[in-house]
Amino acid sequence: MTTETLQENVYLRPLSGAEVTTPPPALAPARIKLEGEYVVLEPMRSDQHAEALYQASHDSEQGLKIWDYLAYGPWPDLSSYTAAIKQQSADPNQIFFALRCKASNEVCGQASFLDINPINGVIEIGHIWFGPQLQKTQAATEALYLMIRYAMDDLGYRRMQWRCNSLNENSRSAAGRLGFRFEGIFYNHMIFKGKNRDTAWYSILDNEWPVVRELIESWLAKDNFDVEGRVINSLSQMIQHRGADAWSRT
Prior knowledge:
Blueprint: E1 34-35, E2 39-43, H1 46-58, H2 61-64, H3 78-90, E3 95-101, E4 106-117, E5 122-130, H4 138-154, E6 159-165, H5 169-177, E7 181-192, E8 195-205, H6 209-220, H7 235-240
Parallel strand pairs: 5-6
Antiparallel strand pairs: 1-2, 2-3, 3-4, 4-5, 6-8, 7-8
Helix pairs in contact: 1-3, 4-6
């Protein structure tokens, strides 16, 4: 991987100082189950999810790669991992979910809401990892879609954020594929595991979300997959060619 492969154009939205005539309702996300066609997001509990999550992320070389760009992990044993899961689940400022694939009924990933700012309608999804069996599946895409839809549609947020290590090519690609717009790099933003981290920032705004939602729902539709489960229309291509949809700001 080279830095040249990670260069992206910053999406320059029109600047706005307009009056916000409909303020966000200032609702915080709840620890509730979010269920789709392919996946269920369950509020994380160490007594219910730790063992399965540990196996999904520690029992193979591919699973261990999950921790390459996260600020924590891997853990030497299930006991220490369970203690970490307890800390995440107990954090009042973040909402963690365990991802259960409905096809296998296995828990094999996690994601969370963080940087929750209900007054200003700003929220982020992060702490995302998918076990090998969940990676590049309909369930993985649907899990993040369900979180974005819950925040933007049900709770009325104005801005959904995504940030990641600037060298994490998979995360940056996932952000773009889901319709997030690249906003730039915070250089020397963090130190993690003894290394510098430059952080890439992305977002979806409320006026952009309806078109993004429609495209993701079209991609998830059963008629977008053949009888062998192979995708017919690429979500990346659909997002890339969405056209002039809602970029003006008021």
